[in-house]
Amino acid sequence: MDWLSRLFEMMPVRGRLDLRCSYGEPWRIEQGPGEANEMPYHAVVGGSAILDDPAGGKPLRLEAGDILLLPGNPRHVMHDGGGAAPLKAHNRASLNFTISENPGSDARLDLLCGHFSIASPHDRLLRSYLPPVLIVRASSRAGELDTAGQLAGLVALMRGEAASDHLGGRAMLNALSTAMFALVLRLASETGDAPRGLLALAGHPRLAPVVAAMFNEPARAWTLPEFAQLANMSRATLARQFQEKVGRSPSDLLTDIRMTLATNELRKGSISTGAVAEAVGYLSEAAFQRAFKAHMGLTPAQWRKAAQAPATIEGLELASAEAISRGENA
Predict the structure, then answer these.
(1) Is 223 helix (H, G, I), strand (E, B) or coil?
(2) How far is CA 295 from the centre of its chain?
(3) Which tens digits make up the pLDDT trace of 267-288?
(4) 108 phi and psi angles, rounded to 5 deg
(5) How many whole angstroms separate alpha carbon 284 and alpha carbon 277?
(6) Angle between helices 250-266 and 208-216 (to 10 degrees)
(7) pTM of the predicted protein model
(8) Contact at 8 Å (CB) between 32 and 139?
(9) Taking CA atoms, which of 13, 168, 279, 321 is between 20 and 30 Å from 291?
C-alpha cells in the first residue's frame, strides 16, 4: 500500500463543508481557531482572495482553483485586498449547509469553507509533519489525468453539489471534502517545492522508498544502514536530508508511526499490551512501555483506561500534547 493510503488507514480523516461564501467587494472573513482536532480548509472556486499570513509574513493571493489548508488551525483573515470597510454579510441555511452572502455585485468571490477532523492524538502527530499553511493550485487548465486536474474536477463537483439541495447532498459534500484532503496532500508532495515536512520526504524520489517502507512495515527491525540502502545514499546523507526536510531523524518518524499504531491497538480491549508491543516492533513489553510513556506522556495502561472513559479524554489529550511538544522542542 502506498504511504498516503496507509496514513489515512492509520489516522482516519473526516471532511465537512461548513459554509459557502458568495461575496462582492468589499468583503472580509475572519475565522478560527477551530476545535483542537480540526484543520480548516478553503477552496476558491470563483474570484480571488488575499490571505493575511497568520505567521505575520507577506500576504498571499489565492485565485480560482486554489485550495488553502491550515494544519496549524490558526485564527486567519481573508479579504478582497481593497482596504475598504467590508459590506455586512448575512447567513442563510440551506438543507445541507449554510450560505453566507453580502449585497456586493462586482468581482464576486465564490468560496467553499470547511474543515477536516482527525481524532486525538493523531491530529497533533499529523500536524507536526505538515506546514502550518499549505496552498495547492488546481487550475482548470490542468490535464484531466494529472492530480491537479483530478482535484479541479473534484472541487467542480463540490461546487455543483453546493449549488442546489440534492438528496444526499450533505453526505456527498462531506465525502468529497475527505477525498479532497487526500488529493491536496498528493498534489503538494508532487510539486518541485514540496513544503518542509512529510510531504517533502515523500516527494523526494530517493527518500520516498524510505517513507513507504516505514508505513508499510513499521514493526520490522529497521536499521539506519537499511534505510540508507533503500535511498541509495550514505547514512550521513540520509540523516542530513531528514533533518533538512522534516527536522527529525528517520528513527523519530518510525517511532511516531509505531506509536500511532499502538494507540489504535490499545483502544481494543481484547489485545494485551505485550501483543501490541510485538505488533509495532518492540522485542519486549518493557521496552515498549518505556517508549510509549516517553512519547505519549502516559503508560499504555493509562492510555487504554483513559481512551475507554470519555470523561478523561481531555486529560489524555493534554498529556499527549505535552509529550509531543517535548519531542518537537528537543
Answers:
(1) coil
(2) 21
(3) 887 889 999 999 999 999 999 9
(4) -75, 145
(5) 7
(6) 30
(7) 0.85
(8) no
(9) 13
